[in-house]
């Protein structure tokens, strides 16, 4: 007979969302069991955010010499020791890992089971020789990369974000299939480190982002040395590896040393035996309501498993909602419209809220504001004037905003607050930003909403009229 464990909260998956739920619940007094069959820390720590941003940091350092001549400073082209770059990535992971470790969570009071979980009834899961019965379950199993159905791909072999960080040899020619954030980031990183890189995308790169801002980011990635091919059809992949592109009357064969597939992700749900718990799912993930409850009202889903936006900060946000509802019975409502996201190319690309076409479809009358980074004095001083800030306004309120430029992921924060709080654009136009900073972009962009009225004939008439009174 398996060991029986009765608990208040059972979390399945020790990635960002699961760890946040477990840590919060146990420290608030709820007995908690955490089940993980893979690595503690999940995708973000081991294969995603942490290693990719560490690699990008190394790559951007390697690219500094390309811009230095504009400042009167001369650097030679860098010598890249790719194995040491890999060591850097691993050292960052190792430094963060203790925070996500089994030992830390057991120290907090969480009972950790290192095994794959499966439901055996609507209120019970089995894992590690134990039968866990809980008042509430949280599925936080994350997602994994999936490959498109291209003939020959499986036979030729390929890398994904789960395997590329184990590579200690600089690719001679890296072919990337997929022009989303992962593909674009890793393509630029390898190009800046000295690899030849070709990126293939069936539609347009960064297709979920505002087209105007995405085009600026794509041009910058091209300038880094990435050969971006958009709107391509891949006929097959051959050993080598080689990717064969199909045109109307011909084919083109692109030979590489390494092949990276970054063409989408799928929620990890197969091992769970969801049908035994009455939990339904769709193509993207579990079916959840606005409170993140599944079709089994005792079971929540967070992060990628919930079938929405696939970002680490979304999982953390979901965790907070689940804790409020599961522990304190407070009503919660997940709102994807308030979630910002960033692609960490150089320059970065960030967005929050409705993009202009979606906003126009929903609201009809909108205003679209633009402010080029070339008009920012800090950007001029640092010779980083490529970029644009953009905001979507409806009836004086901010409903969407985006930035492409250095540090866009940090600059988008105030716009995310504006979208969440339904702030008026006047609130952002009226704050004082220190000079000279990139933060002035926010103030200038918001202020541009009033420029046509402030400098109109009507304003000039009012000023002349008031002047008559002394």
UniProtKB/TrEMBL annotation:
Residues 8-319 form the FAD/NAD(P)-binding domain. NAD(+) binds at residues 178-185, 201, 264. Disulfide bonds join 44-49. Binds 1 FAD per subunit. It comes from the Bacteria. FAD binds at residues 53, 141-143, 304. Residues 339-444 form the Pyridine nucleotide-disulphide oxidoreductase dimerisation domain. Pfam families: Pyr_redox_2, Pyr_redox_dim. One of its GO terms (molecular function) is flavin adenine dinucleotide binding. Its cofactor is FAD. Keywords: Disulfide bond, FAD, Flavoprotein, NAD, NADP, Nucleotide-binding, Oxidoreductase, Redox-active center. The keyword Hydrolase does not apply. Belongs to the class-I pyridine nucleotide-disulfide oxidoreductase family. This is Dihydrolipoamide dehydrogenase. It comes from Minwuia thermotolerans.
């Amino acid at each position: 007979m398996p060991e029986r464990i009765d608990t208040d909260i059972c979390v399945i998956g020790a990635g960002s969302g699961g760890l946040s739920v477990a840590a919060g619940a146990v420290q608030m007094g709820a007995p908690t069991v955490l089940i993980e069959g893979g690595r503690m820390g999940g995708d973000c720590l081991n294969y995603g955010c942490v290693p990719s941003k560490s690699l990008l940091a190394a790559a951007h350092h390697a690219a500094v010499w390309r811009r230095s001549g504009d400042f009167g400073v001369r650097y030679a082209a860098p010598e890249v020791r790719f194995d040491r770059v890999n060591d850097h990535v691993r050292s960052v992971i190792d430094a963060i890992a203790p925070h996500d470790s089994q030992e830390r969570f057991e120290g907090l009071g969480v009972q950790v089971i290192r095994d794959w979980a499966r439901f055996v009834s609507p209120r019970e899961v089995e894992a590690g020789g134990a039968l866990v019965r809980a008042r509430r379950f949280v599925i936080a199993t994350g997602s994994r990369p999936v490959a498109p159905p291209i003939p020959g791909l499986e036979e030729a072999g390929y890398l994904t974000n789960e395997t590329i960080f184990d590579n200690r040899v600089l690719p001679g020619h890296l072919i990337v299939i997929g022009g989303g954030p992962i593909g674009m980031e890793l393509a630029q990183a390898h190009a800046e480190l000295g690899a030849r890189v070709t990126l293939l995308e069936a539609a347009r790169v960064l297709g979920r982002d505002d087209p105007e801002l995405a085009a600026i980011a794509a041009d910058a990635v091209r300038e880094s040395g990435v050969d971006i091919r958009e709107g391509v059809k891949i006929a097959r992949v051959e050993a080598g590896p080689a990717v064969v592109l199909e045109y109307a009357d011909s084919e083109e064969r692109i030979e590489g040393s390494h092949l990276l597939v970054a063409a989408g992700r799928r929620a990890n749900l197969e091992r769970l035996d969801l049908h035994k718990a009455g939990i339904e799912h769709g193509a993207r993930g579990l079916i959840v309501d606005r409170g993140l409850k599944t079709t089994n009202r005792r079971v929540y889903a967070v992060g990628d498993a919930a079938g929405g936006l696939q970002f680490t900060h979304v999982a953390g946000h979901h965790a907070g909602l689940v804790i409020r509802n599961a522990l304190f019975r407070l009503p919660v409502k997940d709102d994807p419209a308030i979630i910002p996201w960033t692609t960490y190319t150089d320059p970065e690309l960030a967005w929050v809220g409705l993009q202009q076409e979606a906003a126009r479809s929903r609201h009809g009358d909108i205003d679209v504001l633009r402010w080029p980074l070339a008009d920012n004095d800090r950007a001029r001083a640092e010779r980083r004037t490529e970029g644009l800030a953009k905001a979507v306004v409806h009836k004086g309120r901010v409903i969407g905003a985006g930035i492409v430029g250095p540090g866009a992921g940090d600059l988008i924060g105030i716009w995310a607050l504006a979208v969440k709080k339904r702030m008026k654009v006047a609130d952002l136009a009226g704050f004082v930003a220190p000079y000279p900073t990139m933060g002035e972009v926010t103030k200038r962009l918001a202020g541009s909403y009033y420029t046509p009225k402030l400098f109109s004939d009507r304003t000039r008439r009012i000023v002349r009229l008031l002047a008559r009174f002394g």
